[in-house]
Write a structure and sequence with these properties.
263 residues; nucleotide-binding; disordered C terminus; Rossmann fold; 7 helices; 10 strands; alpha/beta; 6-stranded mixed sheet
């Protein structure tokens, strides 16, 4: 599902981005020159082998690390550090254990200057949107993994981000819970139409969720092939059509390690 014409917030651009980390022998490249544009309201997945730099690319978009070369822009403004209008969700839920589900969402809304009553109303609505009505007073330790991630999603979308960066958010969940989270995220995203950059190592997950998939090579990472998805939503890995199955086979082929040279 593409953004409506009126949705103009959240254009993310990677312009000739290179990322390197300091090593004992000098800079070690993590991501080679990458140029990529995420149009407002679209859902983009990046998939690649472990260590290919896909999470590094997301961390640069979040403003946590700076590129060695090139720049990243959101709505034309260079990313210089973390931005409250850019939401980030990791595999680990990063919830405050001493706050309830409602308290965690309320805390994230404080930076926007809402009154206490407004924050409570928005937090309650956000929790209801992710299926947690009646769970507001529970602490993270009383919630399952899927419910914790629902709180994280509610907390992020309550602030109406123009872009949402997700780093393997469902990687720690069992298959059944992950499937329900795919349905939930798809529904919430369609309601808000924030621009999403989703990092995953799961091909089926990318095919279920994304408008566009970029496949990265082994590190130092670079995009080796891109795919457009036009299948209607909602989608299910159990009901992929012929085009999706062909795309799945091609992506798996790209991710397969190169054959060992003959002895």
């Amino acid at each position: 599902m593409m953004a409506h014409a009126a949705d103009t917030r959240g254009r993310v651009e990677f312009r000739a981005v290179e990322i390197a980390f300091d090593g004992r022998r000098g800079p070690t490249p993590a991501v080679t020159r990458t140029t990529l544009t995420l149009e407002p309201g679209t859902f983009t997945a990046i998939i690649g082998p472990s260590g290919c730099g896909k999470s590094t690319l997301l961390n640069a978009a979040a403003g946590f690390i700076a590129p060695a070369h090139g720049e990243i822009l959101v709505d034309g403004a260079p990313v210089r550090g973390p931005d409250p209008e850019i939401g980030v969700i990791f595999q680990q839920y990063a919830l405050f254990p001493w706050l309830t589900a409602l308290g965690n969402v309320d805390f994230a809304l404080r930076r926007f200057g809402f009154s206490r009553a407004e924050r409570r109303q928005k937090a309650m609505a956000a929790l209801a949107e992710v299926g947690l009505r009646g769970q507001e007073k529970k602490f993270p330790g009383q919630l399952s993994g899927g419910m914790k991630q629902r709180v994280a999603i509610a907390r992020t979308f309550a602030g109406r981000p123009k872009a949402l960066l997700m780093d393997e958010p469902f990687g720690a969940l069992d298959a059944q819970t992950r499937g329900s989270m795919h349905d939930l995220l798809s529904g919430v995203w369609r309601a808000h139409l924030a621009t999403v950059l989703f990092i995953t190592h799961d091909v089926d997950e990318a095919l279920v969720l994304a408008d566009r998939i970029h496949v990265m090579s082994s590190g130092p990472g670079r995009i080796v092939e891109s795919f457009e998805l036009s299948a209607a939503r909602p989608r299910s890995a159990a009901r992929f059509d012929a085009a999706q199955l062909a795309m799945r086979a091609r992506i798996l082929d790209l991710l397969r390690p190169a054959a060992e040279p003959a002895a």
